Amino acid sequence: MKKSIRINWLATSRYRTYARDNVGMLERRRRSCGSTKPTMQPKYDDLITFQRRLVDQDKLASSSTRDARVRTTQSFRNQVSTLHSYISYHGKTTQSRIGRELLSQFDEHLKRYIDNLPVTAHTKSDRRSHLRSWRRIADEMLNSGSSSHESKERNPSVTSAFHQSLRQAIAATHEKPKTLARRCGASTSAIQRWLKGAFPNARARPSLHRLERALGLPTDSLVKLAFEQAAQPPVANRASCPPIPYRERLRANTKSFYALPLAQLNSSFRAEWASFFEYKTSRCPRFERSAKGTWRLVPPAQIGKKLPALAYLHGRGAETASMTLDNLRNFFGYLALSEGKRIASTVVDDETGMVVL
After folding, report:
1. What's the rounded Cα separation, in Å, for the pair 261 and 273?
2. Dihedral of alpha carbons 201, 203, 204, 206, sign
3. pLDDT along the chain (357 residues), means of 10
4. Residue 304 burial by CB count (10 A; 0-12/13-18/19+): exposed, middle or buried?
5. Residues 303, 305, 306, 307, CA torsion sign
6. pLDDT at res. 16
7. In the 8-state DSSP scheme, what is residue 316?
8. CA–CA–CA angle 192, 194, 196 (5° rounding)
9. How many CB atoms are located within 10 Å of the residue 59 CB?
10. Are 334 and 258 in contact (CB under 8 A)?
11. CA of 6: how far to CAs of 12, 13, 15, in Å?
């Protein structure tokens, strides 16, 4: 009769013993240093859920009247609205982790937020009371360990003039960033990125103009702050870095404006463009068209920048038509350059050998 030896069991037992000894050593070192197991901060969504659960428990446990329960619900909504305004001011959303603005540096951040609110003294007092209540709730939730979400505390948000103005304006509307984005027709993800410290690109100018009108700000106030700040060179020491020839040539070419003027577009092109414009905006086109191949026509009041006359149809404009027309003008203008200028303005990638126009 043959006997089998369980070698794998011996190996597993040995490794399990090592793991147990290592964990025990780490626990002994942590206890000797007087530190506890590091826990990471939950999200603001977890904080709101925690408070909603407490409010629901109070309503079920109490024998108060219906009017009292309604007042409790309305008070909770007011507190949530204040919290949305507060975290938007600091460049965060409900998906962000609870950071120092509600924990270690709460008093400092609260004072700066209250001082910049364009509201009455009574409203400021209510906001201060709501936020202090959220601070106590956050401490209670962290001490009870009710949240399973763990992450490190976020770094401080960017505090440029653009981001400060944007956060103050959004905080004064008492609206969520997503609600404001839908109301003014801007991208919700773009506004959230701007609140977290990103700068808008050149194609975001129409969205910024619509956002300015929705927030009641002067025209070009956010645009100037955004692009003046973004145009500044970074703080890093760039003088020590040698220039890259490809990037230098590309930088010079981006400053060369060779788009064909609108006045030089002949009648033949204008007729083809009108037919193409009608095809892209028609509800029942003559030829097959993809679902995403439609240009949306909007009233002039909802357009954030000045469009050429060729981008309007039946008194309504299409920003996508303006961008397409600009690309065509750039292409036609490049073809219209003399041979010498065209060669000089051609950029060849040093690594791939491909021509970049």
Report:
1. 15
2. positive
3. 46 40 44 49 86 73 52 81 89 86 87 89 89 87 56 45 86 85 88 85 87 90 80 52 81 77 90 93 86 88 86 91 91 77 52 46
4. buried
5. negative
6. 41
7. E
8. 70
9. 15
10. yes
11. 10, 11, 15
The pLDDT assigned to 155 comes to 38
Provide the pLDDT for residue 68. Answer: 54
Q: Dihedral (C-alpha) 65, 132, 156, 183: value to the nearest 10 degrees? A: 40
Q: How far apart, in whole angstroms, are the C-alpha atoms of residue 197 and residue 229? A: 12
SS3 breakdown of the chain: % helix, strand, coil, rounded to 5?
A: 60, 5, 35
Q: What is the spatial distance between Cα 195 and Cα 117, in angstroms, rounded to a whole number?
A: 17
For 255, the 3-state DSSP assignment is: coil
* pLDDT reported for residue 40: 61
CA angle centred on 224, ends 219 and 230, rounded to 5°: 150
Global pTM reads 0.37
Q: How far is 252 from 263, CA to CA, in rounded Å?
A: 26
